[in-house]
Specification:
The structure holds two protein chains of two kinds.
Chain A lengths: L2 H6 L10 H14 L2 H11 L1 H16 L10 H33 L2 H5 L5 H33 L9 H29 L2 H21 L11 H7 L3 H4 L9 H25 L3
Helix pairs in contact in A: 2-7, 3-5, 4-7, 5-7, 5-8, 5-9, 7-8, 7-12, 8-9, 8-12, 10-12
Chain B lengths: L2 H7 L7 E12 L2 E12 L3 E5 L6 H8 L7 E6 L2 E3 L3 H5 L2 E4 L11 H11 L8 H7 L15 H13 L5 E5 L7 H16 L3 E6 L2 H7 L2 E6 L2 E7 H6 L4 E6 L2 H10 L3 E7 L2 E6 L5 H14 L4 E6 L4 H15 L1
Parallel strand pairs in B: 3-8, 3-9, 6-7, 7-8
Antiparallel strand pairs in B: 1-2, 1-4, 4-5, 9-10, 11-13, 11-14, 12-13
Helix pairs in contact in B: 5-6
Classes of the chains: A mainly alpha, B alpha/beta.
């Protein structure tokens, strides 16, 4: 069988679907077939929640007078905060992998040789990576929501509006970390260096900067400040370290989204393949 | 070969050349990797781009494919200007640049799926055909990290076929292959040419180019120093005859007097006679034979001597070295 004979059977008038979804599917295939990455992502987003609620249920069952029900608003808030922190790590791993996989494997040049625009190749990475990171984060979130509602007992359970707000906020936090990692790894072409830089920023540098009062309102430029201020107010009881307005927070989030993407897209378009 | 498919990738009246470059130059700082290259590759042929390592072969290919920028000059692929019409031109170009690279964690079929997603919609339907043609159908669902080098090369060809290519650009495609693999590869390339596809084969292996290609450009230090058909380049435009007689001295004297003879040199296996380029070879050879016989010499050998491409290549490059 030849290539020609394979093509000869094609219906000529077949309608062509949009190209971007095929590229996105291909990106998703590349990501989801990385077993290690998928396992680590699930380990970060689903496993801790499972363990946390099993522990809470066990404690409540053994000493109900000392330990309250496993569900309820307070535990929901705590587990969502935990999920957000671990979701950020998962998003960084996924984003860094998606951004640097083509360069690292050497397949980028094979993709460029197809004639497809480099911008389209870059753009396809984002929805695929976001899809995987969000799916994993939301599985963990579904567990959280379910457990905090069903196991609330005498405590106040999170309402539907709060559950929706919580899901949206989690998506925002995950997306921001993902975009930062994806843009930076596309620009640097290195997964390892990107993970080190972004993890360091997210987990050490930014939280430390946020605590330095001498920086004053400059701290409002940190994405961690912006996402904290955009969190549902019922979650953290207004315990915001650096108060900032919603409009400033939205602008900061937009800037931290656009800058890495522009850097990654520019480098993808300009680099020697 | 699907002529319909080809027509979509080729401009009407684009001429007989699938690759045409003019003054193509690439500099890396002060170093010139590709120097003022004018290249014309005819349609439907196997064209060798032959040169020693570091001669700028891969850099030229990378420029043609838009993998690296051009310092100056113009180029056309399949009648389309590159880089301005690069996407349309490359839609009908398949290429292997240096060692073909893949996602090791994906299977052969999945790797092709990824590339097909970046190509036209029909590319996906070509995956099975491409795998079958390269003999990979049975192993298509194994992860590429378990493939041998030969299998990776074949998968690289399969990937190139997803474009239903009018032009195949292969950069050192037989690197690392064993003799059987090289022969298989040669047959495959000739098969592509027989289908009407054009193959641009970059190599430093003279023997390989001579066996596969119809025409060749010889490149040295970034410059194309000669291009033409293999036969023309091998003989360098001069007809050469190898003659052995019963009396070599007498024969040398007779040949030296003949106006059609440019040079006559005694070698271990006879006298190598070069005819002047302006004479018609066949009548001149007939005349030489007649004169030798009339002089009473017994002719033991009288045959056209064809210099190998290797000999010609070494002549050219050593001349360039001397000139430098």
């Amino acid at each position: 069988m030849t290539t020609t004979s394979a093509t000869a059977d094609l219906p000529r008038a077949r309608r062509r679907p949009a190209r971007i979804p095929r590229l996105v599917n291909a990106e998703l295939l590349k990501l989801r077939k990385r077993r290690g990455l998928v396992l680590v992502t699930l380990a970060l987003t689903v496993l801790p929640i499972l363990i946390a609620y099993i522990v809470l249920v066990t404690l409540h069952a053994t000493e109900p007078a000392k330990y309250g029900p496993a569900g309820g608003l307070e535990n929901f808030s705590g587990s969502l905060y935990l999920l957000a922190q671990l979701g950020i790590i998962a998003a960084i791993l996924i984003g860094a992998t998606a951004g640097a996989a083509d360069i690292g494997s050497g397949v980028f040049r094979e993709l460029v040789v197809t004639g497809r625009s480099r911008l389209a190749l870059f753009a396809a990475r984002l929805p695929a990576a976001f899809g995987l990171a969000l799916a994993a984060a939301w599985v963990g979130y579904a567990l959280t929501a379910l457990a905090s509602s069903l196991l609330a007992g005498s405590l106040e359970a999170p309402g539907a509006a709060l559950l929706v707000e919580g899901a949206g906020w989690l998506a925002l936090v995950v997306a921001l970390a993902l975009v930062l990692a994806l843009g930076l790894s596309s620009a640097l072409g290195s997964r390892g260096i990107t993970i080190a830089i972004v993890l360091g920023l997210e987990l050490a540098v930014m939280p430390a900067l946020m605590q330095i009062r001498a920086l004053g309102s400059l701290r409002e430029l940190l994405p961690i400040v912006a996402t904290d201020s955009l969190a549902p107010s019922a979650l953290f009881d207004g315990e915001v370290v650096v108060p900032t307005s919603v409009s400033v927070a939205v602008l900061v989030v937009a800037a931290w989204t656009l800058l890495p993407l522009v850097a990654g897209a520019w480098r993808t378009c300009k680099r020697d393949a | 070969m699907s002529t319909d498919a080809r027509a979509t990738g080729r401009k009407e009246g684009s001429g007989a050349f699938v690759v045409e470059t003019s003054g193509l130059t690439k500099r890396f700082g002060d170093r010139i990797a590709v120097d003022d290259v004018d290249l014309r590759i005819p349609h439907g042929s196997a064209f060798g781009y032959l040169g020693p390592n570091g001669a700028g072969k891969t850099t030229l290919i990378r420029m043609l494919l838009g993998l690296t920028s051009v310092t100056s000059g113009t180029m056309q692929l399949l009648g389309r200007q590159v880089p301005s019409e690069r996407a349309t031109a490359l839609a009908r170009v398949g290429a292997i640049v240096e060692e073909p690279r893949f996602y090791g964690h994906l299977t052969g079929r999945e790797n092709l799926t990824v590339i097909a997603a970046a190509r036209e919609f029909e590319a996906h339907a070509r995956i099975d055909g491409a795998l079958a043609r390269t003999g990979l159908s049975q192993r298509a669902d194994e992860r590429v990290k378990h493939y041998s080098l030969g299998m990776r090369q074949r998968l690289g060809v399969a990937r190139s076929l997803l474009a239903d290519p009018e032009l195949l650009i292969l950069d050192e495609p037989t690197n690392g292959l064993d003799p059987a693999g090289m022969r298989e590869f040669r047959d495959m390339i000739r098969g592509f040419v027989a289908e009407g596809r054009t193959v641009l084969l970059s190599s430093h292996l003279l023997d390989e180019v001579e066996k596969i290609c119809d025409a060749v450009a010889i490149v040295d230090r970034g410059r194309v120093v000669m291009q033409g058909s293999i036969a023309d380049l091998a003989c360098g435009g001069e007809e050469t005859i190898l003659i052995a007689t019963s009396d070599e001295e007498c024969a040398l004297a007779l040949l030296g007097e003949n106006r059609a003879v440019a040079s006559a040199v005694a070698e271990a296996n006879g006298i190598r006679v070069r005819l002047r380029p302006e004479v018609e070879a066949e009548p001149a050879a007939d005349d030489l034979g007649r004169r030798l016989v009339l002089a009473g010499l017994a002719i033991r050998r009288f045959e056209p001597a064809r210099a190998s491409l290797e000999q010609r290549f070494l002549d050219i490059t050593s001349r360039l070295e001397e000139a430098a």
